Amino acid sequence: MEALFEKVCSLPTLMDAWKRIRAKGARGGLDRMTVKDFEADIAGNIRKLLDDLTSGRYMPEPLERINAPKMNGSRETRPLSLPSIRDKIAQQAVRTVIEPLFESVFLDCSYAYRAGKGPRKVFKRVNYYLTTEKRRFVALADFDRFFDSLNQDILLGEVGKLVTDPGIIRLIRMWCRIGFVDTKARYFDMDTGIGQGSVISPLLSNIYAHRLDEYMVQNDYAYVRYSDNIIVLSSSSKEAEDAFNNLTVFARKALKLSLNKNPSPMRSLEHGFVFLGIYYQGATREISRGKMVKIMRKLGAVIRAGKNQAGLLMDRLNRSLEGVRRYYSVVDPEHQMIEIDAFVVQNITPVIAGYIKQDRYRNIKELLAFLHSLGFVSKTYETRKESVLRELAGEAFKKASLKGEEKKPAAPSKKPFKREVASADRAVSRRKWKYLKTEGLSSELVVSTHGAFLGKRGNRVVISSRGKTLLSNRLDRTRTILVASKGVTLSSDLVHECSDNKIPIFFADAHGPPYAMVHLPSFFHARIGIAQLEARQNGQGTGIAKSIVIGKIRNQLNLMKFYGRSRKDDEQFQKKLKAMETEIEELIVMTKEMSGKGKRRKTRDRLFSIEGRAASTYWELVKLLIADGVSFPGRVRKGAGDLANSVLNYGYGILYARVWRAVTLAGLNPYLSFLHEPQQNRPALIFDMIEEFRSQAVDRAVFTMITRGEELGLDTKTGLLTEKTRKKVIQNVLERLASIVPYRGKRIGLGEVIRFQPGHLADCLENKKKYRPFVGRY
Predict the structure, then answer these.
(1) Are the C-beta atoms of 40 and 92 separated by less than 8 Å?
(2) Which one of 403, 433, 455, 583 has the fewest beta carbons within 10 angstroms of its own beta carbon?
């Protein structure tokens, strides 16, 4: 027979293990490598793992210890020790090879972590003992810190009864002994126990407890074990007590395990008992009250988490409800299922009302289409589903202070001249946008003509070339000057005037950020600068960094949703957009749940990892979006040679200037940042603040130009954008900055939002408030 270790160290076994890990969507460990990262070079990574295993060089990474929420609505957590993706693949390969050997000897009384077993089978087995064999007395037990208490030497001894291959024994030993690193980057040895969270841990726990299973069955006990939960059913109270005592002694002596303290481990069917969340009393079989509370808490937590995640709410809620239905339908407690459905309807209604206020659903028909996927757990609610959903939708519109099926103004519906008032409001809005567009185009001067001269004539700034005036603009209406071409000269009079009027002059090339600027010698307030320093030390800075990342990736998603509205028939785009929405929502949850404690560098690295995952999905969808217009090799920041990236980088240069001016006017120190690491001569706070505006200000302008088929090009000699293209980019980006967007309950120009956000940040720093990023609508 082929050696077991050779089976593990085979390409088919490792590839099968990889596919299983990928299918689970497993997160990585301490090395921060994700499934997606590993897949980027799957052939090379699997080959390296195979070589390391066969050569004996393989060594697992320390486990990452996290405290995962128990998802029961409480603040309880359970420690999980997470291996790296590479280690998970190796563990899965070993599990695949050795599990069939142990399954052949495992006893029927063991129900956890085994194919074809599970909680439903436990209920049927227990119910059989109670009703058919009339065993009306039970002993209940569960192990204290089961996974953390397993004796590693005993475990290897049990494994060695069926697996004698030294290569596999060595691997299992390493996985048991490798320590874990906690959230404070402290390393802890693992002298006892196995990491709960490892792929192979469930199998090892069953191997360890198999001796207890054998002992109880050999002594003719009606014994059932589900992981560390045990029930022994007996015909008399004396027999149940003896079984409990014998179990306790054997577990302590043979396995070095102790039971959790239980003041009354012996129970009877007459007085009732609970096992695995099921309450048994007489002929009654139903969900225990304690489990009902946990189910409600979990469902409530899922619903609350969906307040701003409509795309994920139904999927997560239905998965939770399906788990309840699958687990407890064997008991068929219809009255409790009705209670659960009623709880869901009651608690989801205000969330749906919030969606209506956000303009996600404007009428009953749209809302019912969204709600139709909601799956109820009771037969009663499922039978009345259409009427229940219609009542829910009506109540949601009522809570949102809406009348009828269409969204109405807050004023009384019978207000006279309603149509005329609405028409006038639209006209005013159009005029406002036209003004902001004109004002925006004139307030930001961008010089893109090679060899141009900038000077001052009276109270105006003048741009001329070869004796011809190209543009003349009033100084008091000029906010920023961006020199985005070579060979441009400036008069000292203009520089002096700009300094007096706090008009910064930026110098940028075709690659993005300004490389120089002219501004007042003093530009930030000491008080705010001190607050910036304090925020970097007291944890507030981490919260700001998290908000910036959330704002950035939310805006990327919303921009793709904006384009998705006109591509409803594009199945490939819609499929990828849906996948992007799912991933972004999960990344946002991950960011929000990230602890602000610990080393700042480690937190920043995790945030950049999240940002990178979102960016990868975003730019893949961008490639699909603009495929008919230009070729897009992926995002290239420096030295871009393709048209799309060159246009983006040029547009970002305009945005950098706008953000830099806003930051300095707010009195912030541009060199003290929260997401990007401060570096000498690098205005890292500008890089922070620009993140939430890139997609909404520049990407949208650029992608719209490309998808409209505008004529854009690169100079064949220099490889840079042609002057005609540069002027188009300037025009479109400035028009986008002048466009009206919702902001803090108002509708203002996007350029004004950029001006207000640094001021909002400064206020948050001084008054220790939470920073809210700008999120554009779609």
Answers:
(1) no
(2) 403
User: Please, what's the b/e burial string for 399-409 (b: 16 or more CB within 10 A of its CB; e: otherwise)?
Assistant: bbebeeeeeee
- Please report the pLDDT score of residue 76 as a whole number: 66
Q: What is the pLDDT of residues 530-552, one digit of tens each?
A: 999 999 888 899 999 999 999 99
Q: How confident is the model at residue 599 (pLDDT cuts 50, 70, 90)?
A: confident
Q: Return d(Cα 409, Cα 418) in angstroms, integer.
A: 10
| Side-chain half-sphere exposure of 377, counting CA atoms within 13 A | 31
- The stretches of 516-539 forming alpha helices (DSSP H) are 526-538
Q: What is the spatial order of strands in the sheet that 489-490 belongs to? A: 468-474, 460-465, 453-457, 489-490
pLDDT greater than 60 at residue 713: yes
**Distance (Å) of CA 556 to CA 305, 606, 680:** 21, 19, 30
Q: How far is CA 426 from the centre of its chain?
A: 38
How many Cα atoms within 13 Å fall on the side-chain side of residue 364?
14
CATH superfamily of 443-503: CRISPR-associated endonuclease Cas1, N-terminal domain (3.100.10.20)
| pTM to 2 decimal places | 0.53
Q: Partners of 489 in the beta sheet? A: 453
Q: Topology of domain 526-767, per CATH?
A: Four Helix Bundle (Hemerythrin (Met), subunit A) (1.20.120)
Angle between helices 152-159 and 201-218 (to 10 degrees): 80
Cα distances from 545 to residues 143, 532, 554, 593, 769, in angstroms, run 42, 12, 14, 13, 14
Give the whole-angstrom CA distance, residue 246 versus residue 265: 13
pLDDT at 466: 85
